[in-house]
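Q: Here's a chain of 496 amino acids. Please give me its 3D structure as tokens.
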Amino acid sequence: MTFLPRIADGATRLVRLMLLSAVLGLLGLALVEAVAAADPSAVPSASPSILPDITAEQPSPSAEPADLPSPGASLSVAPQDTCYTCHSAIDNTQHDIAQKWKDSVHGRNGIGCASCHGGDPTSDEVTVAMSKAAGYIGKPDRTTTVGVCGNCHSDVERMRQYQLPTDQLVKYRTSVHGERLFGAQDTRVAICIDCHGVHDVKKASDPTAPVYPLNVPKLCASCHADTKLMEPYDIPTDQFEVYQASVHGKALLINQDMRAPTCASCHGSHGAKPPRSSEVVGVCGKCHTATQTLYEQSRHAKLTVGPKCWTCHGAHDVAQPDESRFFHPKPPEIDCTTCHNPSDRTLILNADRFSKDQDRRCDTCHHQGSILYSQAQGIYGSLDRANAAYQKAEGRIGEAAGAGMIVSDADVTLSQARTSLIRARAAVHTTKLTLVAALADEASAKAAEAQQFADTKLQQSVFRREAMVVVLGFILINILALLLLRRRIDHEDVSA
């Protein structure tokens, strides 16, 4: 067993060698850190700096860089961001601002303060960090702010990783807001920070973001419902109130149906501008594609100046359409100038004539006695008869179901009638009486068939009730007969 001491001796030497190596390694690291503390440039970086030169000229977001000055800042937060560190400690207001930035989409993605305000975020000297030499611009004015935002958001390379569009600035320049800001130097118009926030910018998909679809109407109303702010532009301030009561507003704000249009759906967001009359059909057609196709088959669509979607349905106050919207209860007083220019007899489309819901009727333009009025009457009559047949069938089916009858066959046929009625109502947009009448007659026929099913079920229900009465009567007669028989037997037993 002489080899055991040798093994123990070798193990001891190996442990001593490892300990010596560890001590030397620690001494080496301490030496490197001491050198780095004395002269940071003496230690080569293992990777390139994440901070580009903040004084370097940044790419211009447009062909007119003079209009959109840029602070020329970094897109990344320094390992030690003195902007955040210092401002967090100044006072409660600055601390809240710094915290909002940290929690924002910019803060979470490393977009530092210097990206918008300029300066040197690596220096803890105020005169250096906030010096003009370091590109510090402080709080940018409203025109400059658009350029600051556009400086990054127009850069394809920067935005690629976030899958964000880079045409927002170009669109904004074409908007009413942008045209007034850059053309008329009107700084009261909406700019990026008015919609997206300043330091607390959030993703559009964040339900708490002002630009989240459910919040957009209220966001737009923050300016457009302000009578004092809108006074110089002669713009109505009741759009939000009207929109809330509309079909669209109720669907979005009450039912939270994200398919319902917001202000941006019709006016655009960055390129916000009221659609021209010639564009309205295309705007509404983004959602109502089938209706747009039908409208394009109509005589209205072929007119140079003809009724558009808003003429019958309104703009912000879109109501649920039905047959009551064809004619006024009392025929209105109209003359040729309602539709024609009195000087050259050309067609005109006076928007004021259709500003009120009660005036959006066929007889607003087509007077009694005209061929087109008769055609409108025919369309109305067909739909009214089909709707009446449908309502009657629905009522009878309800009665049959209430009587405990199985009405599945009637329900299926009634759903077919409803489909035909919906198609007939949609076909009104073609202004073709023959098409509407054919679909309406189809709906009436299906409704009559469904009603027949229900009537049969109700007849069966009556027969069953009558049969039940007969059976119950027979049972009662038998019970009485048995009682009499028992009484007789009991009487005979007593007599015996």
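Q: Can you summarize the key feature?
A: The first helix runs from residue 3 to 38.
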